[in-house]
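About this split. The held-out portion is used to measure sequence recovery: a designer receives only the structure tokens and must propose an amino acid at every position. Recovery is the fraction of positions where the proposal matches the reference. Here is one held-out target exactly as it appears in the evaluation file.
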């Protein structure tokens, strides 16, 4: 579990992490090796789900040593399928990392929402809804791994 303190609010007790694959975790179909390491470290504290629309075999090969559950969504149904997963897990106890319009419904419900702009960019709606915006996935993962970054960013 990860406990995140917020000024003037009770802490969020995080049990789950949902990470969008395309454009958030993966850039041009590749995942930074350090991102894989950071996910494996986080998996010791929270249950991680990677949400993907890409070809199953390619994603599984890319993430073969990553300690996370892969959750495949279908084009046109991605937003609803992601939201259903989030609600089943418990939205208040879940952090979401995303960047696309199909992530908006889960960002509206999750306990904490992190946006990764990345090389592909992001929707302005996602930026408005996100609690914190990062340029790179490594920074978003480090935010969860390093409490000192949480204190600095959240003004504690």
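Reference sequence for scoring:
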């Amino acid at each position: 579990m990860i406990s995140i303190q917020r000024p003037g609010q009770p802490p969020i007790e995080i049990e789950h992490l949902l990470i969008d694959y395309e454009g958030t975790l993966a850039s041009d179909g590749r995942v930074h090796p350090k991102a894989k390491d950071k996910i494996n470290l986080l998996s010791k504290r929270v249950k991680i789900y990677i949400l993907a629309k890409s070809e199953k075999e390619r994603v599984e090969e890319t993430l073969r040593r990553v300690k996370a559950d892969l959750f495949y969504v279908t084009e046109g149904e991605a937003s609803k399928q992601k939201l259903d997963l989030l609600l089943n897990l418990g939205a208040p106890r879940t952090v979401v990392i995303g960047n696309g319009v199909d992530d908006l419904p889960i960002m509206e419900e999750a306990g904490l929402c992190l946006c990764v702009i990345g090389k592909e960019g992001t929707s302005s709606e996602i930026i408005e809804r996100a609690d914190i915006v990062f340029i790179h996935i490594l920074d978003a993962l480090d935010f969860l791994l390093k409490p000192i970054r949480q204190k600095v960013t959240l003004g504690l």
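Annotator remark: The domain at 12-154 is CATH 3.40.50.1000 (Rossmann fold).
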